[in-house]
Amino acid sequence: MHDSSLAHAMPKKQKTDQRGEGGSSTYGRTLAPVAVRPLAVVEVLAGMALVLALCRLMRPADPLFLEIGFPWIWLAATVFALRYGAILGVLAGLCIAAAWFVFHGGQGTMAFPEMLFAGGMAQLVITGHFSDIWSARERRLRAINAYLDDSLVALTNNHYLLRVSHERLERDILGKPFTLRDAIERVRSLPAENASRAVPSSSRSSGDAALPNADVVLDFAASGCRIGQASIFAMTAQGLDPAPAASVGAPFKPDTGDALLRECLLQKDLRHLRQTDDAQGGYLVCAPLLSASGRLFGVLIVRQMAFLSLTHENLQLLLVLLSYYADGLEQHALVAPVQSRLPQCPHEFALDLARLAHIQRCSGVRSMMAGMVFPVGTLGDAMIEQLTRQRRMLDLLWVYDQEEARVAIALLPLTDEVGVNGYFSRIAHVAQTQFGVDLAQSGAVSHSVAVDAEASAYGLEYLVLRCGRHD
Which Gene3D superfamilies match (predicted)? Predict the structure, then answer.
C-alpha cells in the first residue's frame, strides 16, 4: 500500500514538470519556448523574410507599411523579441532596415525614416529585455520547483523507510527487550555476597546444589529470549542434580539420556536443536554454566522457546549471560591471577577483566583496555574527574598515582579498536572544549591494548608498564 502511494507520486511530478516547461498549452510552448535553440537565428531570418514577402504581396508599393497610420510590420519583430529576447529582436529589426534599403534605398525618392526605426529598435530592445528578465525568473523558479519536487520525493521515501524501520525496531524490541550490555549490567548488579557462598562442583553434594541468584538470571534470560519453559540444574559430584535450582514454566527433571544434553556436558559448550540429527529429543537448547577456569556449575535446559527467537544473537546472549554468572560464582579464582601480578589492582576491576577474557574465549566478543597518563597538577586532577564522571555504564576505571604522573586505566567491555579511538577522541575533545588544552602538547600520553583471552593478567601488566614509561 505504501509502495503504491509512492509510485503514484512520481508520475504527478513528471506531469507537473512537463506543464512547467514552456507554458500550459501548445500555443504557449510555440510562442514562448523554454530555451533559445541553436536554430533560433535561422528561424528569425526565415520568419522575417516570410513576413516581408507577404507584405510585398499585399502592398507592392509600400511593403513596410510606412504610409499608413501604424507600422504593423514591427509587430512581427516584436513577437520575435518576446520569443527569443533582445538580441534576436534587434536582429529582426535589422531585417526590416535591410528590407527598406532593398525596397526604397535604390530609388532615392524617400529619406531614411530615422525616428521610426529608432523608435522601433527601442521597442524591440525594451520588449526583448522584458522577455530576458522574465525568462530568467521563470528558469530560476522552475529550477527551484524541480529541486523542491525532488526534495519532496526524497523526503517521502525517507519518511516511508523511517516508518518501516521504526516498525521493525518495535518488533525487535518486543522480541528482545534488552541488549548484551543490559544483560551484563544485570548480572553484575546481583549481590556479591550470595555469589561468594556458591559451593564448587567438585565438593558439592546433592543437598547443597542450589545456585544463588539462579532464578533472577533465568527470569532475565527468559524475558529477553522469549523462553517458555526452562530450568537450571546444578552440577554435583554425582552429576546433574535432578531438582532444578531455578525454573521458568513448569519444572521438570533432566533427561540424562538426551543426545543434546550429553553433547553439551561432553563438549562443555552451548548446543541447540539445529546442531544435532536427533529430531526426537525434547530439548531445544542446552547451555553450560561454565566459569573462566573451566569449572562447570550447572546446565540451562530449554524445552519451550519461540521459534523466531532461536537465533544466533539470542544464543550468544544466553551463553554470555550464563558465563558471566558462572564467573561471578568463582570470583576468587578469577581475581587471583590478576592480583598476584598486580596487587594494587582493585578487586572489581580484576574480576571484570577475567570475566571479559572468558567471554572472548567463549563467544568471540572482544573488549579493550585504555590507559591515559596525565601530568601531576590541576589538569591531571580535572581530567581524572572528567573521566570518572563521563564513563559509560559498563566501563570500569582504575586510577593510581606515580611519582610524576597520574594514571587512569579504563576497562571498555564489548569494544574494539574503533571504539578505543572514539574514547580517546572524546577525552581530547573534553580537554579542548572545557579546559582549552591540547592533550598531546600538555604531556598526556595514551595507550591501548586488547583484553587477552588466554592471559588477561599479562595484558593488563603490559599496559601498566607502558603507562609507567610515559612514551
Answer: 3.30.450.40, 3.30.70.2880
